Amino acid sequence: MHQHSHHHHHHHRSAPRHGDGDRGPGAGRPDGFMRGRKFSSDDLQLMLLSLLAGGASHGYELIKALELKSDGVYRPSPGMVYPALTYIQELGLVGVASEGNKKLYSLAEAGAVELAAQQARVDELFASLVHMARKMKHVRGAMAEERGGDDGAWLAEFVEARVALKRALMLKSEAGPDEQRRIAAILRRATDELNGAPAAGH
């Protein structure tokens, strides 16, 4: 019918964006696996504030905490963490006490205010750490096959349902406005139901 619809496909591939800092584990993987490693510096600062809300800590303890929460998947380097700590310290969000040659960081009042303002984002960030850990566990578990219901791993039906949803959405990439609206409504209903809200109008 309208032959021009295919032309615009070719533009995307013309410039593979490699050398733009998108390197790192799994950066170029098609399925975006491990995309979560690439938190922005803002994200890292928020996670550090949140960890400090639990009590004063040294930088290496904060790194360890992020590693633990993600089951070893997210290990930000000291080269990322210390500058982030210095930055939030300069903003007055954290206080620092020197203990010998080590620095003890603690949440300042302004930091607590900032944290409260960003609570939804913080919850999302930590949920993604846990998600990365579960995903990794699932991959390891799938490789080692089911050894009697590994309760940390995802159920096969859970994974299949997620994959099916991603595929269905991908196949709808070229949907027109009406179809996009229909899909958006379905996804909103599903999201509300996942979040435990009563399904609207049923």
Descriptive overview:
- The chain has 202 residues and is mainly alpha-helical.
- The protein has a domain at 35-148: Orthogonal Bundle (Arc Repressor Mutant, subunit A).
- Helices cover 54% and strands 7% of the residues.
- The protein contains eight helices and three strands.
- It has helices at residues 10-13, 41-52, 59-69, 78-90, 109-117, 119-144, 156-171, 177-194, and strands spanning 57-58, 94-99, 102-107.
- The protein has a three-stranded antiparallel sheet with strand order 1-3-2.
- A hairpin with a 2-residue loop joins β2 (94-99) and β3.
- The longest helix has 26 residues, at 119-144.
- It is elongated and about 60 Å long.
Helix and strand arrangement:
Layout: H1 10-13, H2 41-52, E1 57-58, H3 59-69, H4 78-90, E2 94-99, E3 102-107, H5 109-117, H6 119-144, H7 156-171, H8 177-194
Antiparallel strand pairs: 1-3, 2-3
- Write down the overall mean pLDDT: 79
Number of strands: 3
Sheet with the most strands, sense and barrel status: 3 strands, antiparallel
Please give the CATH architecture of the domain at 35-148: Orthogonal Bundle
**CATH fold group of the domain at 35-148:** Arc Repressor Mutant, subunit A
What sequence of helices (H) and strands (E) makes up the elements? HHEHHEEHHHH
